[in-house]
Amino acid sequence: MNTRLAVLALATAALAACEPNPSVTGPAAALQAARAADVSAAVSDPGAVYTLTNQVGGNAVAVFARGADGRLTAAGTVSTGGTGTGASLGSQSAVTLSDDGRWLFAVNAGSNDVSVFSVSPAGGLALASRTASGGTLPISLTVHGNVLYVLNAGGTGNISGLAVGTSGALTAIAGTTLPLSGSNVGPAQVSFSPDGRRLVVTEKNTNQLDVYAVDANGVASGPTTTASAGGTPFGFSFGHRNELFVSEATGSASSYELDATGGVSLVSGAVLTHQGAPCWAVVTNDGRIGFTGNGAGSVSAFAIAPDGAIGLVDANGGTALIGAGINDIALSHNSRYLYVLQTGGAQAIHAFRVQADGHLTALGPIAGLPNGTRGLAAF
Fold this sequence. Notes:
- By secondary structure, the protein is mostly beta strands.
- It has a single domain (2-378), classed as YVTN repeat-like/Quinoprotein amine dehydrogenase (Methylamine Dehydrogenase, Chain H, 7 Propeller).
- It is 7% helix and 48% strand.
- It is built from 2 helices and 30 strands.
- It has helices at residues 2-18, 25-34, and strands at 47-52, 60-66, 72-79, 95-97, 103-108, 113-119, 125-132, 138-144, 147-152, 158-164, 170-172, 178-179, 187-192, 198-203, 208-214, 220-227, 233-238, 243-248, 252-258, 264-272, 278-283, 289-294, 298-304, 310-312, 320-321, 326-331, 337-342, 348-354, 360-367, 374-378.
- The strands form 7 sheets. Strands 8, 9, 10, 11 and 12 form a 5-stranded antiparallel β-sheet that branches. Strands 21, 22, 23, 24 and 25 form a 5-stranded antiparallel β-sheet that branches. Strands 3-2-1-30 form a 4-stranded antiparallel β-sheet, with no helix packed on it.
- The radius of gyration is 19 Å and the shape is globular.
């Protein structure tokens, strides 16, 4: 009983840190050789970064123009038409972009709906629609083609599917509102696999990964569950060939392979970050670098080998130090820039240039966000 209580206490502490108000020689060497050209020296195109103000009195998307050098400039806010919670969502992907960058999707956790925006070539937004999420307390979104799935954390929790029309209107897909593995599971993120044939959900309270099969019409079935290698699985990202990189809030990250049948096989289990509360995770487009955003105020870089094995780029896990609590991370569409949402102390977004070996060069923060800001997406 004492051991169980200790584990529960550790998980609780890790989750609180996520919401602040082995040797790596082999993988790192392979990464350096494979990415000999330093991405920081490449010419980049401009883009945009988005976050949710998540205010009870009215939610909005805060827009930041991204220069070709990765630095951000505030470009105003656009109302979602819904409301936020003003506090923790405990999730990743509360705001997300379509693969082509033409549509932005945002949760309204306070009004239980989802807003869709068309994205102009310059990154500006125009509200296209607002639709019920299929549950309560929507916290995470994922899109593949013209199918959007919402992860709802309220009540017993569920996932729910919506078809995305050519004008940005959303229509509920019959038969796609499905339960999680149980009630009170503490869901954190939902994401399509790269081929769109599977959905994965992380459950913080049960330490499980849920996998749903998705048919050609976008209708999901399942889930099947797999025990997490580390405690409190939270944010995650896919690499190449359905490789899955998962952050674990108790202090580690793990990698898995998702096979053609939806089976999940462990590759590297619970690799310590040596940093507090790794809760958010992204992977570069080439699949060779993963980053965890650590709630205690840092970023850890991982080298990802061709077989999916992971190892820290820096032995102490402190690839970048923010110095205050963070709440999400996102890569630009070309993976040349990493953005980190700081919610402890100042409310700000920090910009970094991604180097060939996974190290980060700070480009500076931009502040001015309200307390309660959550979610991060970049293009």
